[in-house]
Design goal:
Length: 392
């Protein structure tokens, strides 16, 4: 069986979260269809092999043409040769105008071949003509699954054929072995201690700058409060990393889509007292970061997939929300109180953190109890291929 996984853009992705759900998609498809071939449309196969080449599955990388028109013809050739098409774009239709869904879905759709949208966040819609175009594009999918309550509420009025909520596929990513995560933590200088995980985001830093605010100042004050009131070490954790061997300029490295470790370095320089503060700066894969996060007593994160890594391992987690996707995810988990909007005050962040710390044992149990059901639901996604085609 051959499946085209539509998940890569015209530039290689350095986001640990994006790569986490791509890896999870490949894993769950192989779990349902052992030995299946996953086809990736890659702008740079060499870089993508760095991200996915360790997986023990059959993955074919089709080199994407830099010419947009040629790339479109390549896409059609790929679709003619596969048995099913899975589109997995995460928040691609938040950052890209949703109406472009129509253009994409026209190229992805082929008669008698299942076309399924895996756990996306979409919108917001404004109710105009472009949104009607987005709805036409969505109707070309045989199945539409979304990963957050807010996206579901956006799409419900459009009466799509088969719309349902399924948690982000990255929930099922297997963490690295405990020994490896302990090794990585020891390399930061932390040795067997309990700690609070704090995911640092260069994207949030840029958003704060655009708003005329200081992300660095907020984080430094926040760390100081954690150290004083909770009394545990803090480990700064990146979730977007540029691996060695991936060519990039300093401008790209420090840009909005750059490396979280750039901001971690800035924070450490900004701090007068670094006692009890450690930083994970090694080059690590998604499963290794998940293993590290899983050892934390509590996680606060600016990137949604860092929170998914924590929640899936029953770590009490609080998200710094800049987009509806993270708030909608926590709403789906019935954990609205664990969302801090970045437009709110540091005092509000501290209040929510203090509450979560006090309730951490109950939250840990809640997550631990709900995970088997979430895992079963996600693994069931691959059944949709057979259900739609009726022949595979």
């Amino acid at each position: 069986m051959k499946i085209f996984l539509d998940c890569l853009a015209s530039k290689p992705c350095m986001s640990v979260g994006t790569n986490a759900f791509i890896i999870s998609d490949i894993q769950l498809l192989n779990r349902k269809y052992p030995g299946c071939e996953t086809v990736l449309f890659s702008s740079n196969p060499k870089i993508d092999r760095l991200q996915f080449g360790y997986l023990p599955y059959k993955i074919t990388y089709v080199k994407r043409s830099a010419n947009q028109l040629r790339a479109m013809f390549q896409l059609r050739r790929i679709i003619r040769k596969v048995d099913a098409v899975i589109s997995a774009w995460g928040d691609g239709y938040i950052t890209v105008p949703p109406y472009k869904l129509l253009r994409k879905s026209i190229f992805l759709k082929k008669k008698n071949k299942p076309l399924i949208l895996f756990t996306s966040s979409i919108g917001p819609f404004d109710g105009g003509f472009k949104d009607k175009l987005a709805a036409i594009g969505l109707r070309l999918f045989d199945v539409v699954t979304v990963r957050d309550q807010i996206t579901y509420d956006y799409l419900k009025p459009y009466r799509l054929k088969k719309l349902r909520i399924v948690h982000d596929t990255a929930f099922v990513l297997e963490p690295c072995k405990s020994q490896r995560s302990s090794e990585l933590l020891k390399q930061t200088g932390l040795d067997g201690e309990r700690f609070i995980g704090l995911n640092i985001s260069i994207l949030l830093h840029d958003i704060f700058v655009q708003q005329g605010k200081s992300y660095l100042e907020l984080i430094v004050k926040y760390i100081s409060w954690i150290r004083e009131k909770i009394g545990l070490p803090v480990v700064l954790i990146p979730h977007q990393i540029y691996p060695t061997g991936v060519p990039h300029t300093q401008e790209e490295y420090s840009s909005r889509d750059g490396d979280d470790r750039y901001v971690i370095e800035m924070i450490l320089k900004h701090m007068r007292d670094k006692t009890g503060v450690y930083a994970l700066t090694q080059e690590v894969m998604p499963h290794e970061l998940k293993g590290v996060i899983g050892k934390s007593e509590m996680l606060i994160g600016g990137r949604m997939h860092s929170i998914i890594a924590g929640v899936s391992l029953a770590v009490p987690s609080l998200v710094m929300q800049y987009s509806h996707k993270s708030g909608g995810m926590m709403q789906l988990l019935d954990m609205d109180d664990c969302v801090w909007d970045i437009n709110n005050s540091l005092d509000d962040l501290i209040t929510k953190t203090h509450r979560l710390w006090k309730e951490r044992e109950a939250v840990h149990k809640k997550y631990r109890d709900m995970m088997p059901g979430i895992y079963k639901e996600i693994y069931g996604l691959a059944d949709e291929i057979k259900a739609v085609s009726g022949v595979l």
